[in-house]
Design goal:
heterodimer, A: mainly alpha, Arc Repressor Mutant, subunit A, 2 domains, 7 helices, about 60% helix, B: mainly alpha
Chain lengths: ~160, ~230
């Protein structure tokens, strides 16, 4: 097994999970994983070891995924109209669909809107700051916050109706 | 009663609210069941999301590697190495390589010995240089080591990975040259180890081995730097 294959086998499951969560399902995750590792091979000479290879790979992966989301018709990275976060004390209204209570986290993530889901994954799972997310996605840091809050609210309703 | 704002609730839930504001907001929670319940609910979501496993170990990604490898092969200048045992006829190539390497190793040993002979009095510290930890030797593998430093297997593997990837990106001519140098030194080390196995107390052999390992380390550094 060569060195790059070892790198792939070590990091591919996490990169695949990143794709699946950012995209909201498996549909394009396989293709994106391939794109990310081919890009990683091409960019390898630029990796100078300032960060762990996993961190570098995830950052590169996020950029590939965001590029895909920007151009994809199926799951575009939409951030418009997302700043209108409700601010009343009526959060957590019980959804009519009782089946929602059975959703696990991954299924609930899949049901979030593209922009909100991407920010939630980047912030709460990947650990990026709102400023970093703003830089990567081209949205304002305030919009990133609003998206995150909205995503958490939606998740709360789905996971704990 | 004025309830907490969304920013305060979310900030309390993920711990990003400033200390002063968090103190005021927490005091409010003690008197407002609605806000307290809402913040607890958000905290549960944050906990659950942030503790989600980084990956799903379903083995599915193994199936994607052949396609990735094929795409990489289309783009790069040097093929990825394939395990020798899977190549028909590889024993003949290995035999030829073995003969060439033996000759190259003899040259390396002679050069090192010559350099040593020209040195009038080796320093006491050099003479006391410990024999590096024995590494698995292979004609296709470079084993990084330092004459004076014992490095971990993880470090060796990391260096090997870096060298392999760096090497695969070199133009074919340079990659072959680097391979040839690496193999010659590798072979010299193997032969010196073999000699030491028969004469473990021979200080000259020990010194030669230390110098050969040092050469190997220098070569790896050059390969890592792409020079």
């Amino acid at each position: 097994m060569d060195a790059f294959e070892r790198l792939y086998r070590e990091h591919a499951p996490a990169v695949h999970a990143l794709c699946r969560r950012m995209l909201g399902g498996d549909a394009d995750a396989d293709e994106l994983v391939q794109d990310i590792f081919v890009r990683a091979w091409e960019k390898l000479p630029t990796f100078r070891g300032e960060s762990a290879v996993g961190t570098w790979l995830h950052r590169l992966g996020v950029n590939v995924i965001l590029d895909f989301m920007r151009t994809s018709r199926r799951d575009p990275l939409r951030f418009a109209d997302d700043t209108a976060v409700e601010e009343s004390a009526t959060y957590g209204a019980v959804p009519a669909d009782a089946i929602a209570a059975q959703l696990d986290l991954e299924a609930a993530l899949n049901r979030l809107a593209g922009g909100a889901r991407a920010v939630l994954v980047l912030h709460d799972i990947q650990g990026y700051s709102h400023e970093e997310i703003a830089q990567m996605t081209g949205i304002a840091a305030g919009t990133s916050r609003a998206q995150l809050w909205r995503a958490r609210r939606q998740l709360a309703r789905m996971l704990d109706p | 009663m004025t309830h907490l704002s969304e920013e305060e609730r979310q900030g309390l839930a993920d711990g990003t609210l400033s200390f002063e504001r968090a103190a005021i907001a927490s005091a409010h929670l003690a008197t407002c069941d609605a806000c307290a319940a809402d913040v607890n609910r958000l905290r549960a979501v944050v906990r659950r999301v942030s503790s989600a496993p980084a990956s799903a170990a379903d083995g599915h990604t193994d199936e994607l590697w052949p396609a990735i490898r094929a795409r990489i092969e289309e783009r790069k200048v040097v093929p990825l190495p394939v395990a020798a045992t899977t190549r028909p006829g590889s024993w003949l190539r290995e035999r030829r390589a073995w003969m060439l390497l033996s000759a190259a190793a003899a040259i390396v040993i002679a050069v090192v010995a010559l350099q040593r002979a020209r040195t009038p009095s080796p320093s006491p510290t050099a003479a006391a240089t410990p024999v590096p930890k024995v590494l698995p030797s292979s004609a296709a593998t470079v084993a990084p080591a330092s004459a004076n430093t014992r490095i971990s297997q993880e470090e060796i593997q990391r260096l090997l990975d870096e060298v392999e990837m760096q090497k695969a990106m070199l133009p074919p001519g340079r990659a072959a040259l680097a391979d040839s140098d690496a193999r010659a030194i590798d072979q010299a080390i193997a032969e010196l180890r073999d000699a030491l196995a028969h004469d473990p107390d021979n200080p000259a052999l020990r010194q030669l081995l230390a110098e050969a390992v040092q050469q190997q380390g220098d070569l790896i550094k050059r390969m890592r730097n792409g020079s």
